[in-house]
Amino acid sequence: MKYIRMTDQDKVDAIRRYTTDLEPVTSIAKSIGVSRQSIWKLLQKAGIDTAKETAAWINVSCSACGTELKRRRCQIRAAKHLFCNAACYAAWLKHGNGQPLQEHRHHQRIGRSIVEKFFPLRPEHIVHHEDRNDFNNDPANLRVFCNQGDHVRYHRGFMVPVLWDGRNPSNRRTYLATGRE
User: Fold this and answer.
1) Would you say 36 and 23 are in contact if contact means Cβ atoms under 8 Å apart?
2) Of 46-50, 55-59, 155-159, which gets the smallest average pLDDT?
3) DSSP-assigned states of every residue in 132-143
4) What are the backbone angles phi and psi of residue 138, rounded to the nearest 5°?
5) What are 56-103's pLDDT values in tens digits?
6) Which residues contact 22 (CB under 8 A, 6 or more apart)?
7) How far apart are CA 6 and CA 40, in angstroms?
8) Boundaries of every domain in the chain
9) Which CATH architecture has domain 1-53?
10) Strands, E assignment, 92-139
11) Cα separation, 36 vs 167, whole angstroms
């Protein structure tokens, strides 16, 4: 691997990626094309603590209650939301991931009613919002799966049959033309 000299912009980007994006030193070095020791020296010159005992821990707040906690950099990178304990996590889940539960379910029902204009739904069918936003009930954002198992497999990256896809305009026209509204 041939190493290059870092430009001033590379240095600024490396510091931002380490402090703000919490990216590991090795991946920063690899993307810029320098050694990890070069990145380490750059961070030392900038006055940024990189010692494993102290730099690994960062102050964050609980997603449910807002309590300040210390978490390792790798935990913050790996999780979208952080919680101080299991009770806070359960409370966050109970209230629909940051939105009131009733409002969350209401928008799911709206999605089902919109799909029913185009496709006959059965109770076991699952309406999936492609962008994972229950407020976006545009038919092009909706898909229908046979059951919850297929829906979960889809989220895990498996190929599963889609009963109805709102992105396909012919699906919408077919059911409207047959008089199912």
Assistant:
1) no
2) 55-59
3) S-TT---GGGEE
4) -65, 130
5) 788 888 888 888 988 888 788 777 788 888 888 877 777 656 555 455
6) 58, 73, 76, 77
7) 13
8) 1-53, 56-94, 101-177
9) Orthogonal Bundle (1.10)
10) 126-129
11) 45
